[in-house]
Specification:
The complex is a heterodimer of chains A (625) and B (340). By secondary structure, chain A is of the alpha/beta class. Chain A is built from 22 helices and 22 strands. In chain A, the strands form 4 sheets. Chain A has an 8-stranded mixed beta sheet, sandwiched between helices. In chain A, strands 18-19-20-15-21-22 form a 6-stranded mixed beta sheet, with helices on both faces. Chain A has a 4-stranded antiparallel beta sheet with strand order 2-1-4-5. Chain A is globular. Classes of the chains: A alpha/beta (625), B mainly alpha (340).
Chain lengths: 625, 340
């Protein structure tokens, strides 16, 4: 009779604590972490930024940021403590037994070395190939991650490839040594939904092939529940809840898990309001002094008892634990009612585009024939008063090019734009002045959109400099105070610099700046991507609230279909510069007519954890130059 | 291969753009020096020449013609390799420059090599001690070095090694009694190919102090740029990713960090090398080094227009050549520039 081998965990943490050790005092970053991961299992790590998700990956590699150290507990890889292990021994494990997939695939590869040079270096180091046969081996690894044209790929530099392809190469490298443990830190955050689906499926496929244990770090609970066996939700450096993925997602026990889930808009079923998690995760200094539950300050179910003592992780089901003393109340947390829908059919048309086309032509050169391609190809659209129109599509589909035409950063090569009855296609000086009063743009990355050397008060009232109206210091400070109040920032924020604000606050400032002169139209390019779901929910509701107050309309560009479904009245689906489908958001998403729209929708992880996620895995056309 | 095609394209493009630049510079040199209140005709005659004699000389030299015609004649001669005759040295400018330019090129090239070695070593060391107490000290030292100009270094080194310890020669290129081979005009190269080892060694000894002075003066900025480029590169994900693949720190530094950080350092070196051609001047004077710098000083002191014009054009050509070389190197080292 065969005896089933008892499965030893490949990775186990016991009372693991990581602290930021300062000269005078230390602050806990990860507190009392206990978990074990069996071979062949996927553990999803979920939480907002700053929850300590990535810190776990860094603790495993022991490449902690300066001043951080493991102060208590053990972290064992296959029974060996990674923390006390000799660095040489640990380095030997890295890349061979423990592999990592990074968040930013494009910057994860060295820009000055070819893909071939980098994979060769790796294969030689782990001893999988010798000087001559590395090429065959590399091609074999490329094949297993479904990368076509491998031989040509070896000669390429990272900047010549797409993010999805770079991620595939990194996955091929990570799995080349058949690692026993893989840490994937937000591996798809920087990618399109369709690519995300393929990459996630690929990781799962490789993981099955090799029986690798995977730690999958993500801020997307829905995605984690699709791919993981078990999920651990982290809050401020401590596990809030841990349990089997499906069970945790369908009946979350910790209020934080529930709030995260409800903060994310849905892609199917009736639209619902978003749960707004107030404020932010407490900072390290606050946490150190904190007596009670660390989530209490934001918890809708918190009572006085919650602030007295840190709740222990208690069993609430098989393999399911949560750190909350009132788990029975968690299902009572419900999303707020949806704001009543707006009737926009009769609305006046503000902005109208007819057969808009933008063609880019390569620079003149005596050596090559000039070629041109149409970033925006004969697009018709309109934007009514108070209407939010979403533009969705993959990167390169022409969404941002269309936005640039609308705000006047580019002049169309063909077609016509009219704004409130006036033809502004020519984009002359008078058109620009006219357009400026009507349209303002909110940029994607607040980090680079806000001048770091100016104070918030001066940034949000920048528009007054251009118009010259109300441009005295007094008037500007007054206006800044009003704007900050509207976007929910304290008045003293006016005197701060952008670096003193959080990512979400910066994006609010970015919105406030666009609203300063009360434009009738906002153009927003991916303004909530890369933000936590909690911050995203806050911003989406802020936009709806501001629309109710000011009645502006918006072109909202996003690759996140759920967000568009929540926010926008109408949607336009763009593919290779053309609008392939458009209509009322709910109609388009419920009954997509175009195959491309269907593939976009299928790529989104379903709301129902038991539904099958079957993204279309066909390769996008990839051409070797 | 694509890389060579791109470099060939760059060369063609740069040589084509160099032509109008050279024409412009030549016109500028010509005009400015004609505007100067010196009369070449009077200067080329003995002080006791009569007004008639000067006038005859002016006609002979073509100085009475309209300016554009004078420029045309001058340009025409220039194309035939004739920059004119030096008024002061009574010699062809071409042969004067031909005999001093190689000396300056040798000085600049070796000084740049010294600067590169010190700069890279210092930059790596500054980077290596990052975050330690030694960093503050090294930072202080590098700023101190940065603030010392090359003529001070020249004087220090001359006093210490030349005068005080008397271990190194500090005037000219060769000690008396050494035979000077003449093949290409480049002393080091010529003595090497003719197998004249004593001359080679003696010439090298003469070059140590001026090259050190220039090299040391140029190296601190290279150090600091390399250090900060390395710090920038180490912020990037690919370094972290290389660590997570278990590569050794040494390999990460050389193959991943340095290969990226060298790019900004290289462009600074290109700029420095361009400056170096004009910048050897003080050092050449201090060490009585028979290069272009000394020639220029003599020419300016004597208002020797043909030399000034010739030297000006030579500098212009040198800077253009250097920038083409640096840009080609950039193409080789930075694949991002190679697309399209």
């Amino acid at each position: 009779m065969a005896i089933l081998p008892t499965k030893n965990p490949i990775l186990s943490a016991q009372n693991l604590c990581v602290e930021s050790v300062g000269a005078k005092e230390s602050f806990p970053v990860l507190t009392d972490l206990n978990f074990s991961l069996e071979p062949g299992k996927i553990l999803g790590l979920v939480g907002e930024s700053g929850a300590g998700k990535s810190m776990i990956g860094r603790t495993i590699s022991q490449y902690l940021p300066k001043g951080f150290a493991v102060t208590k507990g053990t972290l064992a890889f296959d029974g060996e403590d990674l923390v006390s292990m000799l660095p040489e021994r640990r380095r030997n494990l890295l890349g061979r037994d423990i592999a990592f997939i990074p968040q930013e695939p494009l910057s994860g590869l060295n820009p000055v070395l070819t893909v071939g040079q980098q994979i060769k270096e790796h294969l030689l180091r782990i001893g999988l190939a010798s000087g001559e046969n590395w090429r065959e081996r590399a091609l074999k690894e490329f094949e297993s991650v479904h990368l076509p044209h491998g031989a040509a790929l070896l000669e390429k530099y990272p900047h010549q490839l797409s993010g999805g392809m770079c991620q595939r190469i990194l996955i091929a490298m990570a799995f080349a040594s058949r690692p026993r443990l893989l840490i994937a830190d937000e591996p798809t955050t920087a990618l399109d939904v369709t690519i995300q689906a393929r990459i996630v499926k690929l990781i799962a496929e490789m993981q099955k092939r090799d029986g690798t244990a995977v730690i999958f770090i993500t801020h997307d609970l829905r995605l984690a529940s699709q791919i993981s066996d078990e999920i651990m939700v982290l809050y401020a450096g401590r596990p809030a809840e841990r349990g089997p993925a499906k069970q945790l997602f369908s009946s979350p026990a910790h209020p934080y898990t529930r709030c995260l889930q409800l903060a994310n808009p849905t892609i199917t079923g009736p639209r619902r309001g978003l749960f707004i998690l107030p404020e932010r995760m407490p900072g390290l200094r606050v946490l150190k002094e904190l007596k009670g539950c660390r989530f209490a300050s934001r918890c809708p179910n918190a009572i006085e008892a919650c602030t007295r003592a840190e709740p222990p992780l208690a069993d609430i089901g098989p393999n399911h634990i949560a750190a909350c003393i009132r788990t029975e109340k968690t299902p009572d947390i419900v999303p707020p009612p949806l704001a009543p829908g707006r009737e926009i059919a009769s609305a006046r048309i503000h902005l109208n585009g007819e057969k808009l086309t933008k063609a880019y032509t390569t620079a003149w050169s005596p050596f090559a024939k000039r070629s041109s391609f149409k970033a925006v190809n004969s697009v018709d659209f309109s934007l009514g008063e108070g209407e939010f129109v979403g533009i969705v599509g993959e990167s390169g589909s022409g969404k941002s090019s269309l936005a640039r035409l609308v705000v006047g950063l580019d002049t169309p090569t063909d077609g016509r734009i009219t704004l409130a009855g006036r033809d502004i296609t020519a984009n002359g000086n008078a058109d620009r002045a006219y357009r400026r009063e009507y349209i303002q743009m909110v940029f994607q990355d607040p980090q680079s959109a806000l001048n770091p050397r100016r104070r918030i008060g001066s940034i949000v009232t920048q528009a007054n400099e251009a118009s010259g109206l109300h441009n005295s210091t007094r008037e500007r400070m007054d206006r800044a105070a009003e704007l900050l109040k509207e976007i929910g920032l304290p008045p003293d924020a006016a005197m701060r610099f952008p670096s003193q604000l959080s990512g979400g606050q910066k994006q609010r400032v970015n919105i406030a700046r666009a609203l300063c002169t009360l434009p009738r139209i906002l153009v927003a390019d991916e303004i909530v991507s890369g933000l936590d779901v909690s911050v995203q929910a806050q911003l989406l509701d802020l936009l709806l609230k501001l629309r109710d107050e000011h009645g502006f309309s918006m072109l909202f560009i996003s690759h996140d279909l759920s967000v568009v479904r929540y926010l926008c009245d109408r949607v336009m689906v763009m593919y290779r510069g053309e609008v392939v489908e458009s209509g009322r958001t709910e109609t388009v998403f419920a009954d997509p007519k175009h195959a491309y729209t269907r593939s976009l929708l299928a790529a989104v992880p379903p709301d129902d954890v038991n539904a099958e996620w079957s993204p279309v895995l066909a390769e996008a056309g990839y051409q070797v130059e | 291969m694509r890389m060579f095609a791109t470099i060939a394209k760059l060369l063609v493009k740069r040589v084509l753009t160099a032509i109008p630049i050279l024409l412009l510079v030549s016109a500028l040199l010509f005009c400015i020096l004609r505007i100067l209140p010196v009369d070449p005709a009077a200067m080329s005659l003995p002080p006791n020449a009569t007004v008639q004699e000067v006038e005859a000389m002016r006609t002979e030299m073509g100085l009475n013609l309209p300016l554009y015609q004078q420029y045309g004649i001058w340009l025409n001669k220039l194309f035939h390799g004739d920059i004119g005759r030096s008024i002061h040295f009574r010699q062809d400018v071409t042969s004067l420059i031909g005999s001093t330019l190689p000396a300056t090129i040798e000085l600049a090239v070796i000084a740049m090599m010294v600067a590169t070695v010190f700069g890279l070593a210092g930059g790596l060391f500054l980077f290596y001690v990052r975050g330690t107490r030694a960093e503050a000290v090294m930072d202080f030292v590098s700023i101190l070095l940065l603030s010392l100009p090359e003529f001070l270094w020249s004087l220090f080194l001359l006093l210490i090694f030349g005068v005080f310890f008397e271990v190194l020669p500090f005037t000219g290129r060769l000690s008396p009694g050494f035979e000077r081979p003449l093949v290409t005009g480049f002393l080091l190269f010529d003595s090497l190919i003719t197998g004249n080892i004593p001359t080679l060694l003696n010439a090298l000894q003469h070059m140590i102090l001026p090259c050190l002075a220039l090299g040391i003066a140029l190296s601190p900025s290279l150090m600091r740029v390399l250090r900060s480029s390395l710090l920038d590169a180490y912020q990037d994900d690919y370094i972290q990713q290389a660590r997570l693949r278990g590569l050794s720190e040494k390999r990460i530094l050389i193959r991943h960090g340095l290969k990226n950080a060298i790019l900004p350092t290289l462009s600074l070196m290109g700029v420095q090398f361009g400056f170096l051609f004009g910048g050897t001047l003080l050092v050449e004077i201090i060490y009585s080094y028979p290069g272009m710098g000394n020639l220029m000083v003599d020419a300016i002191r004597n208002a020797d227009l043909p030399i000034i014009q010739g030297a000006g054009l030579t500098y212009c050509v040198a800077v253009l050549v250097i920038s083409i070389v640096v840009d080609s190197l950039y193409l080789i080292l930075n694949p991002k520039l190679r697309v399209r």
